[in-house]
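Hi R.,

Here's the chain you asked about this morning:
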Amino acid sequence: MNVLITSGGTSERIDSIRRITNSGTGRLGRLIAERFADGGAGRIFYIRSETADAPERGPVNDVTVESVADLERAVRRVCADVRVDAVIHAMAVSDYRVKSVTSSGRELRRDAKISSGERELTVALVPAPKIISLFRTLAPSATLVGFKLLDGATQEELRGAARELMRANGCELVLANDAREITGERHVGLLLSDDGGAERFESKKEIAEGIYRAVIARRNGQHRGV
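And here is the predicted structure, written out as tokens:
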């Protein structure tokens, strides 16, 4: 089984030094990759941000990216080279990219460091591509696991957002979590399936194990919920 895992958080450059980043340590992605490696997955393609945790056990094809554009190129390359059987899209992907930076109506060059003497900067953002929407085309037979993170949501809102992500992108499974319930070793997550199942976990290790079991069950045609 070939598995593609994304992990960490992308960043978009303002200039040659400054970036807008999405928070994401990659700790959960690392645990997921290690669990699939322990389970004997054939090839694991681990696409991560430069600062994200890398798996300590393998074999894993470790690829680092920076921006959403980098991520898209890496995803397309993997899916073109091999048949991907499972995608775990855990990366915190930027929703926006930088279109331009201006000062007093004057557009500034972004291929070098913008002077700190500029009195005021206006950073124009435009929507970035939704990487999760590519997988049903690039890897049509893969089991797709999406992730939905909200902050301060009710359980009803969290479930609704996860179900919408599932519906819009053809995910079989979605891990829904709230930023308020991620502190240190505690990481509460709800794994929802497209047949209405749901399972709650209390730590990253439990989440990694739950996702592994759910994906394997799907690939073996044995799932009945999660």
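One quick note: The chain has five helices and 14 strands.

Cheers,
M.
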